[in-house]
Amino acid sequence: MKGMLKRIFPVFLCFCVSGLFFKLVYAHSDGAPISCLGSGHDRYSFRFAAPGTHTCGNLGCHYQYPINSGKGKFMIFVLDKCEPNEIVDILVSFKQTDTEFHGFQITAQDNYYGNRLVGTFLNVGNDSDTQVEAGGRFATHTKKGIRQKFWHVKWQAPPEDFFVANPVRLYAMGVESNNDGTAMGDFIYKATRLIVVERKKKKKRTGTYHQEGVRYENRLSFLCDTDCFKHVPDYERLSARFFVECAENVYS
Known about the structure:
Layout: H1 2-25, E1 73-77, E2 81-82, E3 87-95, E4 101-109, E5 120-122, E6 130-133, E7 138-141, E8 150-156, E9 168-177, E10 187-197, E11 206-211, E12 214-219, H2 227-230, H3 240-251
Parallel strand pairs: 2-10
Antiparallel strand pairs: 1-3, 3-8, 4-7, 4-9, 5-8, 6-7, 9-10, 11-12
């Protein structure tokens, strides 16, 4: 009897541990686990690498198919340049998929030693379809957000006094899921976009205006001394938009 119990106990323990493991694995409809984006080597640069070597496709969550083997398309839409500390809008989107359930996780890395996480992801107002993780280092879906194919998040670039090894790479992985509670039948995708974080260089705009039959070549700042502004009180405090519009009228 004791021998039989000794043989049964390891099997019973294995089932208990396996049950706990699978419960953890398949409970991610409320958001992706932190740092499951994987290595992310791609056509941009072999030096880029995500925080870990594990992905949604080999952690046991969705492992049946290779990454990007599905017929769907997974994309990131964002500007290609921004200034330090600027908040930019990011759209993460699926298309050409047939399933009802989708998910994603996104992070931002610069080229400093290959995989440094930079910037901060922000929630968009009262949007309950997305959430941020690890203090804004990642953004992912919520349980409500799995029934859609696109998500809107915001990312704040590092401040000006923070050295950024450009370009910053926005790297995301997406899941096209059948939501059957198993690791089978789900497709994993990855997408990347590059964004350069740098302060805009002030362009010296030159132009021509005429005064009393004399042609002048001057920079835009010289227009403050022309009749275009003198009839407006406190012209030094005019908006940049009015300044440019006035300059365009003078140049025309």
